[in-house]
Specification:
The protein starts with 7 loop residues before the first strand and ends with a helix. Strands 2-1-3-5-6-4 form a 6-stranded mixed sheet, with helices on both faces. It is α/β, with parallel strands linked by helices and about 290 residues long. The chain has 2 domains: about 130 residues, 3-Layer(aba) Sandwich (Rossmann fold), CATH 3.40.50; about 140 residues, 3-Layer(aba) Sandwich (Rossmann fold), CATH 3.40.50.720. Helices cover about 35% and strands about 20% of the residues. The structure holds 2'-monophosphoadenosine-5'-diphosphate (ATR).
Length: about 290
């Protein structure tokens, strides 16, 4: 693609941004959909987030992605926040409005679309979430929205798991979620089989030999293990899940679809599944 006077810019703000795979999503989609659009990472130093958002708007950026550590901190600098993003408490996509950016969360719709693409059902499922940080909170809201039958949040720090469960129950008006210490799975009904989403950073590169839980009895309770980690592509959590007979997935498709949905919001294009799959292959080549 040739950059000319009409090229629109989208970008990613975060710290760090140097290892991002997002340019391989958006620049590929721009080329394939024939849009005069370029996607660029912007490293934003601590304390400069407000300047960065105002500057991005003033520079007429078409759209912005927001990553760690700014997904919640960015909210006060937005003109509007989409309802789902507000409930999750995190924004990863900014869409241009006349007077400022509107914040969306495409991570969770992205995870759901990835699950659909992988044939993983949420509706009516008994779900386990490992971890109780920002990602776990978002996953819990998504699972509740998509009709999970039960949500058990397991975390080293019990109070954080309990807090997310309380918030989800308040949102839904049902007793859907509950918090547990990590080892509590030992007392779960032996006949139950779970969809488990691993949201902690345990097992991420370079500590690829780590898993939050090692006990084969835990993995025997899972019919599906979904790790939000994508580096490495095959985590120890995934290996242990498969070894116990379950299906295992990494977080790369979630990353793909959060990007696809952001691109759709920015351009109004609808990305067909065949093009999403081509984009996925392009991302995989980055590893
Ligand atoms: P994110 O926004 O990506 O979810 P986070 O908010 O820092 O990140 O949350 C990280 C989660 O991983 C937390 O639930 C954390 O457990 P605590 O709440 O007890 O801190 C969990 N986690 C990270 N490293 C861990 C480890 N070595 N053992 C157990 N849990 C860990």
């Amino acid at each position: 693609m040739t950059i000319d006077g009409y090229t629109r810019t989208c970008g990613l703000i975060g710290n760090p941004v140097e290892h991002t795979v997002s340019p391989a999503i958006h620049n590929f989609l721009a080329e394939k959909t024939g849009r005069d659009l370029a996607y660029v990472p912007f490293h934003v130093e601590t304390g400069r987030l407000e300047d960065a958002v105002k500057g991005a708007f003033a520079l007429n950026l078409l759209g912005v992605n927001v990553t760690v550590p700014y997904k919640s901190d960015v909210i006060p600098y937005l003109a509007e926040v989409d309802d789902l993003a507000a409930r999750i408490g995190a924004v990863n996509t900014l869409v241009r409005l006349p007077d400022g950016f509107k914040g969306y969360n495409t991570d969770m719709p992205g995870l759901y679309r990835a699950m659909q693409s992988d044939g993983v059902r949420v509706e009516g499922e008994k779900a386990l979430i490992l971890g109780a940080g920002g990602a776990a909170r978002a996953v819990a809201v998504m699972l509740a929205d998509k009709g999970a039958g039960e949500i058990r949040i397991l975390n080293r720090t019990l109070s954080k798991a309990e807090q997310i469960a309380e918030e989800v129950n308040a949102m839904t008006g049902k007793k859907l979620a509950a918090g547990f210490p990590l080892e509590a799975y030992r007392d779960f009904p032996k006949e139950d089989r779970y969809l488990c989403i691993q949201t902690t950073n345990v097992g991420m590169f370079p500590k690829v030999e780590d898993a939050l839980l090692e006990d084969p009895a835990f993995y025997a309770m899972l019919h599906t293990g979904y790790d939000l980690i994508f580096n490495p592509l095959d985590t120890r959590f995934m290996q242990l899940t498969r070894r116990a007979g379950g299906r295992a997935f990494n977080g790369l498709k979630m990353l793909l679809y959060q990007g696809v949905i952001a691109y759709e919001l920015w351009t109004g294009c609808e990305i067909p599944e065949t093009l999403a799959q081509e984009t996925y292959q392009n991302m995989r080549a980055c590893f």
